[in-house]
Structure formats: C-alpha cells, structure tokens
Amino acid sequence: MKTVEKTSPEEMEKLLRVPLTEEMGERDPELGQQRRAGAALRIDEIWMPRLLFLLRKNILFDTAEGYVLVSIRGPRRVGKTTLVKLLLRELLLYSLSHPKEANPLKVVYIRCDRAGLGGVEGLANIIRDFLARRRDYPGSAYVFLDEVSSLRNWQVAVKDLFDAGLLTKNRVKLLITGSHSLDVKKGAEVLGLRKGVMLEGGNDKLLFPMKFAEYAYYKEQLAGRRALRDFFTNERFLEVQKRLEAFMELAKPAGKMPVALEMAEAYLDELYAYFENYLLTGGFPLAIRQQLALGRIDPSVYSEFIDLAVKDAMKWRLNEDTLYNILWELLEAPGGLYETVPIKETSANSLALKLGISHNTVKQYLDYLVDAFVLLEVAKLKEFGRRRSPVKTPRKFYFWDPLMFYAFKAMSAGNRDAYSMVLNMSDRWRGVMTEMVVASNVAHMVFSLEVIQDLRLLKRKMFYYKPQSGREIDFLVDIKGRLVPVEVYSGEEVDSDHVKKVVRMSTQLGVRGILVYRGKETRLSEDFVAIPAPLFMLLS
C-alpha cells in the first residue's frame, strides 16, 4: 500500500498563493489595476515590501493571544492599500491550515474615505455590529481600517470600543493605514495605553516610496531577470545588519572596500541604467509599472497625487491657495519656470516675509507637508556635540520622491504632461535630482537603524552643515553615535574642491567622509571615499 505524504501547512500556502492572488486580481478592482491587459494578475507584478512579512508575523504570531493596534503611515499612492490586501491574502491562506486561529468570517476591511460611513459614530457602530455577529466563531477578529486620515477623530471610535472591552475580549488585531503622521501623534494622545500588545520596534510603521535598492529589485522582478536579485539574496544585502556593516567599514578611516560593494561593482552598468530610470519615475509602484509597460507615465498619475494631497490638507482645515503659494515659493528658481530647485534652504520667517503671512501660518503649512510625507526636512547643525538645530535656523526641504517633485513642478509651470517635461529637462535637472534621491535614501537608512519609526527622529539624526559660504556639507548623518559627512557631486570625475571639503570635515569628526558622485570608479583613501551614486544608495 502506497503511503501518501501529507502536505505541510507552509507548502499548502505556497501552492495556493498564486491562484488566490490571481482570483483576488479578478474580484478586486484596485488589485486588478496591476494586471497587464488581458492577463491574470501575477505575483511578480506586485511590489511586496519587507514590511508585509513583518506585519504578517506581528498579527499572526506575535499577538496571537491578545489585542493589538498597528498603524501604517505613508504618502498617498505609495501602496498601503495593496499592502493591506496582501495581508488579507495571507490571512486567508493561514486560515486553511489553522481554522481555529484565523477564520475568514472574522475578517473585515473598511475604507474610511468612502461616502456614507457615518463619521466616527458610524465607524464604531460598524465594528461593534461586526464583532457581535461573529462572536461565536473561533479565532481572533481582524479589522482593517484603510485611510483613517480621511476621518477626523477616528481615534475616538477605537477608544470607545476599547473602553467597552470589545477589542480585548475579541482579541482584535486592528490595523489602520493613513497618509499623515500627525494622526499617530494625536492617536497616541487620545488612545494612551489602548494600543494593546507593544510590538518590538513599536506599533506605528512607515511605508515610503521605494528606496533605490528596492527599486532595482522590483525592476528585475518585473522584467523577469535574476542576476541582481540573486546578488541581493545571496549576499544578504537586503538585511539591515549587512548594509550597516558595509557603511561602517566605508566610514572607518583606512577601512577596506566592503566585499559586498566590491561584488556589486560588477553590476554597475545595470545599476546606473536603473538609477537613471529611478530619477524619472521615483519609487511609486504604479508609475514604475506604467513606465515599463507603456514607455511613459500618464498625466493622471501626477494630477491624482496632487488632488489627494490637497484634499487631505483641506480636511485638516488648511487653505488650498496658501498651500500652493508656499509650494510655489519652495519650487521657485532663478532663471525661469523650468529651472529646478527641489532642494530649498529657507525658514518660516523668510517665507512669511515673502508671502505676507504670519510665521506661525507658514510653520503650520510646512509641518503639514512634512507630516504628509511630501517634504523631507533636514535640519542645519550648529554644534557637533549637540544633535539639534535651534528653532529659528534655516532648514533644507527636499521632496521625498522624484514623482512628487515632478507633479508639483509641472503644475507650477502650467505643464499638463509632467512626464514629457521630465524627459526634456532630465539632463539639466540630473544634478539636483541626484542630491534629492540621495537625501531620501539616507533618510531610509536612518529609519532602518532605529527601533522606533518616527519622522521626528530625523531631526536628531540627519543634518546639513554650513559654517560659511562655500564650505557646506550636504549631509551629516548620525550612524551609531558617529557623525559621518556625505557630500553629493553631480560630476563624473572626482572634484578636488569637494574632496577638500569632505577631508576637512572628516578630520574634525575622526571618520572617513563619503563623496557620492556620478562616476564609475570607487576611490578609497584614509580620509575620504569617492563612490558612484548607485553603489552608495544600495547601502540605504
């Protein structure tokens, strides 16, 4: 008699993941948008950030016996809804082999930006009714609230449900998404200790547009290529500790070239090709897929991002015209509409004087743009020993992603085809765009090394230094307590003036500074390293 081998739960989930993804692509309009015309949705067309696997572990295993509230914050259109749908898929797969722990009938997904929800009271009633109807089914309850930023005071609904004992009694795993970090701050104040199980790394997670390493991996995935993906996997280059070790070796005086980076140099031509495309599309999944499939990005991708960002601002009772005026001032450049300054050193006081409005009003709007993940704020460091910047000192403001900058730049210039504008201006804009993406990737690096993810951390970890004109260092990054200078140069040859600045700062700080440039050779000396931009950005 033949023995039939039993399929393990893990093997069964792996076998069913593809057909379930295809079925969800047929039934779910948002997931279905990721399909190629006339084809089923393929797993390799979906960006699956590492956060997906962390959240799967958090809600299925780390908090199996209790209540937990987890938030995911990030800019509009970055993929938060897709991430939630993929978590729903993982729950359905897990329930097949663990029906007593996860039951599909105890899972609910609610869009908080849909009409007819009934406000905070309506949301609380929907969840209360769901829990009552599903009370007798086994397992925990899973509640997904998408885009809670659209619902003012959503925290009150959670507070009321928690105080009534419904969230702990039903072992609710409550996962919320939003496009504004201010919600987290307000939520923490209102909810207090009502977040349930405290997770390692905190209960508030951030999802940003793809950093360069993720972009390169995703482009290889979409194209069906394996070389770079195998390198990332085999060299464990997606692991934080591996990248940290390589960075620290680079920043150590007389340190050697990290082996992983030395191996990556073999792929430098491919990495530069991806880098040029990264400057065009940014790290938003929809833009990346469109550019690959159609050879361009539809104007609606840019305009919808602006529309959503402005609508969110109005929900926070901000004035649309004032918001645009501040953005136009940040985008204004000497030389005309199509000159570019995606990096602006300014202060609330100077903007207030130019616009004829109060300092407090300008600060409120700048804070909104930072908290909404549109602008990346980099503080000016005055003293090395004190990792903070005085309130009234200028700041640098970058856009978090090229697509965001192009969207607002095209609108300010009255150009309805942002992608064509970018193609026409790419050579002229390449230098400043390189500094912008280095800034956002350095910010990624800072976040990856921190236990708690909070935008406010950047104000103590990432700076620029400008003791006097002509001696500015683009970034001083606090990595494990050491300040490391990072200077960005758009030239293809190592420039002696930039080297002198880096060496001078390296000597002061007792580290080896880093010059990021657009050449193809990595040069190491005792007090500086010159490294091609794509290689450096792999470390983020």
Can you describe what's shown?
This protein has about 550 residues and is α/β, with parallel strands linked by helices. It is built from 23 helices and 14 strands. It has helices at about 10-25, 30, 50-60, 80-95, 120-135, 155-165, 165-170, 180-190, 210-225, 225-235, 240-250, 260-265, 270-280, 285-295, 300-315, 320-330, 350-355, 360-370, 400-410, 420-450, 460, 495-510, 535; strands spanning about 70-75, 105-110, 140-145, 175-180, 205, 345, 375-380, 395-400, 460-465, 475-480, 480-490, 515, 525, 530. The strands form two sheets. It has a nine-stranded mixed beta sheet with strand order 6-8-7-9-10-11-12-14-13, with helices on both faces. Helix 6 packs parallel to helix 8, helix 9 packs across helix 10 and helix 9 (about 210-225) packs across helix 13. It is globular, with a radius of gyration of 24 Å. It starts with 8 loop residues before the first helix and ends with a helix. The mean pLDDT is about 90.
Brief summary:
The chain is of the alpha/beta class and 540 residues long. Helices cover 50% and strands 13% of the residues. Strand 2, helix 5 and strand 3 form a beta-alpha-beta unit.
